[in-house]
Give the backbone structure.
Amino acid sequence: MSFVSIFFLLFLAFTTAIYYLLRTKYRTVWLLCVSYFFYLTWQPAFLAVLFFVTLLSFQFGKKIGSVSDGKRKKRWLIFSVIVLILPLIFFKYFNFLNDNFAKIFALFSFKNPLPNQPYLAPLGISFFTFQAISYVADVYRGYLKPEEKVEKIALYMAFFPTLLAGPIERAKSILNQISNPVSFDYKNIRAGLQLILWGVFKKIVLADRMSEFMRQVYAEPQNYQGVLIYFAIIFSVFQLFCDFSAYSDIAVGSARMFGINLTKNFNDRVYATPSREIFWQGWHRSLTSWLRDYVFFPLSRNVKSRARLYVNLLIVYLLVGVWHGATWGFIVWGLLNGIWLVMENASKRWRGQFFNRFGIDVNGSIFYFVSWLFIFHVGALFGAFFRTNTPQEAFAFISSITNSNTNLLTRWETKSCLITIVFLFFMDLINRQIPDNQNFDAFIGKQKTFVRWFIYILLAELILRYIHVFDEVQFMYFNF
Amino acid sequence: MKQLLQKSALFFSILILIKIPFFLFYEDEPMYRKSQVAREEFNTVFIGSSRTKFDIIPAYFDSLTKEKTKSYNFGVAYGLPPQTFFWCEELMRENPSLKYIFFELSGGLNKSEGYRETWSEFYFADYSRVIKNLNFKGSLVYHDKLVAGFFKPSFSHRENRIDHNIPLEKVFEAKELKAKAVISQQFVRETYRLNLLVENENYHEASINELYWDSITRLIELAESKQIRIYFFIPPRIESENELKMIHPIYKKLDKKYKVSVAHFDEMFYRDETSIDDSHLNHKGAMQFTKYMAEAFNKHSWK
């Protein structure tokens, strides 16, 4: 059941109506049942994996909570993390590791005895595994008491708006909200629907249009003019932002209809940041904050050397790359981001002194704009590694920016590209007005009735205009 | 709850209000072409997809035929079976002047398994036929298309990029676009291979699509009852192996007199200089293909 389908809207309406009609004590079970039903519509066979990870995390949480000896507690934590991560490694990384081992064996004329595993990775496995690990880690740290009711942990893991592509939620926030359900409030429903409308707009009118354009250009770059290659490169940032933030908006909006507030996963103008550090503070925040809290901080405890901190930072961004997928392209992309952040951090003081010497105001708007331009373009070039399977492919694609075929004006992609740019400006105009740490509903709620309704109708008509009724709408982050 | 229902009703009412002018005044491409055929009393019609639309020039065809033909290109983007069968039947019923029909054999009938009749009806917003053909189960399968199609503003359905229905003098005046097409060599090599297999008797023994064959038989019967000669042809650039598997057994089973054997396997149709894009011929390519069609028609014996 795609988030962008009439079936999902009917499902959401039905689920919400029954939710508010039920007594509060039955609501968790109801949401759990519909969440499992939601997963069944995607991958029925892999529901077993979700059950397995859920039950394990519940039992590990109880065990860790019951052990008082610090060392034993830690051993249980390490054991539980290893066990919880095994399905993820098997389904997502086994074949990649196996193929690479085979290549290494081949160098010594040995044959790799292990065959590849034949299964696709279960949808959402990266997300629910990380949620399971954060639950046991939080119990270990004492941030959270072990949950007594398995259905609450199960719902935390399987809550349908977050199940397939996040945001990666923390147990404390969700369990609190599940335990204290709110009564029906029109404002929650309205905010939920507004967020869903905005999310679907970003997905259909922006992300999918850019995706179609990029699919063509990435498939055969030799057929396109350098200008279109350039747009394909810079669209990669916007397309990824629109696709994933659209999913997050729909997820946040769907959860809001039940009175449950989810993490805001993206800053609305994350594509317009003047440094990579600020970019990563606003991009896929639930993943980066997870890695900060459960990898970087534990690794950096009692570390005094700056160099060691930088190594830890590199490890975190290597994991960001690996989390996204088992390819060398992702690994290089993650490492490049890590190296960039280290360089940015290490050169901060030196850069400040350098610009001061020339009388350049590093807080001025011109400096901000130039920094943004630079950061945006380097980030977009990194996107080529994200989109290709090997670094060689990425380099080949980027180098085709020098193409000078004369077919620019006759290709439909040029018109499509120009229309997309107009829509991107429209999105940016609205994103500028969304208050920090709030969502689209906060912006639209402030508008006068006529403006609000004009935007509703405009977004709906554009969605209807561009939606491909014959194709299933798929989100990119389902792949991760 | 009352507030929610009221506002939802208002929202959808506005969407319908916006749709009404399109519904009342908008003429989509098949409707537009049907009215053209009826108005000008053409006696020859080419029916098919965008491949027919791009690849055949009617006035040039008329200048080359021995018979007195006045032909019209009824190629429509995504004009695939079964929609082309319906258009063909309607044209035969509504146009007494029709003498010859050239019908493109292409894939499409199994686009949506189980409810094969409905895919192109939805695509062309042919709701009278959708309502007539759709059963309860089908409407469940197609619920999203029904709803989205119902509210969708249809303001860009007409494909105006190219229309070969022009007088002969303009055909010769027409110039190629200055920019050279750059086509996907991989795609075109593959489609050339597929087109070569059309006449190959030993090609994959795919089972015949009964629905497709029944529709062809119905067309032939209707054409014969109206003394119209109907010819089936295969355009250059078969899109995929699946399309070939669908049309090959049909083409093989058809009686010789209903086929125009065009030299679609000529290698020249698979080059940059005869292409406008991956799937279609440019003006130069269309002139050549039209010439082959006319020659095949002139040689054809109706026995």
In short: Chain A has a mean pLDDT of 86. The interface with chain B takes residues 5-7, 184, 186, 189-190, 219-220, 222-223, 405-410, 453, 456-457, 460-461, 464-465, 467, 469-470 of chain A (CB under 8 Å). DSSP finds 20 helices and no strands in chain A.
